[in-house]
Amino acid sequence: MAIKKSELYSSLWASCDELRGGMDASQYKDYVLVLLFVKYVSDKYAGQKDALIEVPKGGGFPDMVTLKGDKEIGDKINKIIGKLAEANDLRGVIDVADFNDSDKLGKGKDMVDRLSNLVAIFDNPALNFGGNRAEGDDIMGDAYEYLMRHFAVESGKSKGQFLTPAEVSRIMAKVIGISNATRVNQTIYDPTCGSGSLLLKAHDEAPVDVTIYGQEMDNATAALARMNMILHDCPTASIWNDNTLSTPHYKNLDDSLKTFDFVVANFPFSTKSWSNGFDPEHDFYKRFEFGIPPKKNGDFAFLLHILASLKSNGKGAVIHPHGVLFRGGAEAVIRKEVVRRGYIKGIIGLPANLFYGTGIPACILVLDKEHALARKGIFMVDASKGFNKDGNKNRLRAQDIHKIVDTFNRQLKIPGYSRMVPVAEISDAKNDFNLNLPRYIDSTETEDIQDIDAHLNGGIPNRDIDTLEPYWQVIPSIRATLFKKADRPGYCQLKVAAADIKPTIFGHPEFTAFNESVTNLFFKWRKANTPRLKGITVGGKPKALIEELSEDLLETFRKAPLLDAYDVYQHLMDYWAETMQDDVYIISADSWKAGAQVREILQVKNKDGKLIWPESHDYKKGKRRFKSDLIPCDILVARYFVVERTAIEGVEQELAEIEQRLDEQKEEQSGEGGLLEDVVEGEGDKKKIAAKAVKARLAEIAKDPDFADECKALEGYADLLEKQSDTKRRLKQAQEELDNNLAAKYPKLDEDDIKTLVVDDKWLARLAADVQGELDSVSQALTGRIRQLADRYATPLPKLTGEVRALAARVDEHLKKMGAKWK
């Protein structure tokens, strides 16, 4: 049975993180990723003739496995890696981490145990990379990205620059037009490539195998990039280790800069030493003809290098701090020249705190030389408010990425979000080539202005009702149903009581029709995609599947009024990440039938050795002695055992009522002088009344008429205890019977049963509920706003003042009657 991808990656990270001890994550990643590399190439290329990577005898991962527990494991691992490096011209690439470094890995047994355990993590049957393509549908690309993201987060602010967030990389890849590449000799270049993640995302977006070039100044990070290329089936990518600005590596025969079809970059922000090693004023490559960037800020130096590295029809996307958009001095001169030449196609403002190396907000400059001469404007997007908190960082959601890309590529004008800004507006005297986004896009939220006249004289301002125009366009008659003209122009009054606003809206035929129209859209999508979902087979392509499902869902709900199609899309993507992805990978690996198999759950005991789980049944929380990853118990129960579930819930209710009565009697009669005082054990929250104590007290006083009231109370309490015991017995019996029914039912499910349970009852039922939740949000937003306005202006200020005076007079009168005197 296939292991869940989410479980695999999380356990992989947890194990690696636990083993790194006191080593910084930025250092420890070198050990983990080298082992991942050796494991990958061993699985994929060992024993193959004419393979791109040769795995020599004694130079593969199986050789490492034999070393577990060996006293010389560190030195021997180094030798294994050395053989692999020597055979593939990877010296200085995969042998940068010393596995025999006692300062980092511990001495003696500590090193042996740490390395043995580290090798064991990768010696996992679920981690089999043979025959798979990274970023296709195998686990390699996802595992690498998962580990790299965690290493970047853990490495701290100053050491997390080896990775551009995958979400940002995807945006850049989708806005430079590389999806239109048609030839393998087309090129993509990153002058500060880090670990190569940005290059790979762009490469994956291309329909053909475009040629990759990258340069990176840091030696260890350049080595990481070369490993990354091989891990992602791009072994012919060219990665060079040197300073791009002072010593650009990629040149033509005449020593001029080589130019590329596409460029992507996330350079180090505001580098102070950018001009070290060369003289910008006499630059051999003539990169600074628009002006020399400031000595202590290299942001424009990288931009000018990139522009010089683009072909005449080249396109690029570069991450910059927002300062490049508005800073003055030498940068203003350069910016003016770049804008005048039409090189900037667009600017995308991103949320703050996205990047691992800095918390400041950044933007993407989208470059396009091909259409520069004809460019009449710059398309601007302010996407700074669309994100999700993820620990101490912000992350772009799937819907944020999709909205940015759709808006940019389609050049959509969205108020407060995006617009095409004419160059004439940018260059006028007011703006003077300042590209700061807030100058051109007002993304501030509309202020909810209080109406003084309405507070004084009552009524709801028409202008507030008019702001709900998107609703009135869909459900126009509801406005007339809810409001009538007030006694003066510009104001209206509610025609219904405030408490009746919601039922009036929900019960209106237009709102019912709106609800049905959205529900029908989901059913249309469901009908079209159910065959696709039930048609998943072994060897299927999960990533292609979710791409088809999500794009179809987004396009379907673009037609839905009042709903944000991207919100609906996000529900699917969230559920995919949470549950559905694991399910689909299990089916694709094992088949529907095998994926639905039940596996035993280990019994859990407490410190005293008492079995505490799974004997302590809790049906509602799904605790069971067995588990099916594809079909949770509650799904099976809901389809086949509703009667049994209802009976159990009835017994649970009985038990709850009995226990409530027991608690009430204990609370009322267990105190000093209470009828149950003599049978109470313990104090405070630990106070209890045991059946044995009640029985003993009854035997003691049963024949004494002076204790008749206490006997009656004890007998009543004893009767409840007996009912409690009997109800618990019946509940346990019913739960065990349901358990047995479930255990018997799972093996009898055929493939059609499983598909119905998984696709209809699990996946689509969840998505239907999510869509209904979006509908509920729409209705709640409308009713909430109307109720807010009604409450805000319900009582005019003069009336409030009069009520206050009347109340004050009544208080004065009461005080006089009481004889109170005051000045």
**Total strand count, please?**
20
Q: Which structural class matches the secondary elements?
A: alpha/beta
Uncertain regions: pLDDT < 50 for 5+ in a row? 132-138, 602-607, 611-624
Average pLDDT confidence is 88
Task: Give a summary of the structure in a few sentences.
This protein is an alpha/beta fold and 823 residues long.
What are the SSEs and their pairings?
Blueprint (H helix, E strand, L loop, with lengths): L4 H15 L5 H21 L15 H5 L7 H15 L14 H4 L3 H14 L17 H16 L10 H10 L11 E4 L6 H9 L5 E6 L2 H13 L6 E4 L18 E6 L33 H10 L1 E12 L1 H4 L3 H11 L3 E6 L12 E7 L8 E6 L5 E3 L2 E3 L2 H13 L7 E5 H4 L25 H6 L2 E2 H5 L2 H6 L1 H7 E3 L5 E4 L6 H7 L1 H26 L7 H16 L7 H26 L1 H4 L3 E2 L3 E2 L5 E3 L12 E2 L5 H8 L1 H28 L10 E2 L6 E2 L1 H11 L6 H38 L5 H42 L4 H21 L6
Parallel strand pairs: 1-2, 1-4, 2-3, 4-5, 6-8
Antiparallel strand pairs: 5-7, 6-7, 8-11, 9-10, 12-14, 13-14, 15-18, 16-17, 19-20
Helix pairs in contact: 1-6, 2-7, 2-10, 8-9, 8-14, 14-23, 20-29, 21-22, 21-29, 22-23, 23-29, 25-26, 26-28, 27-28
Features:
823 residues, alpha/beta, Ferritin, nine-stranded mixed sheet, three-stranded antiparallel sheet, 30 helices
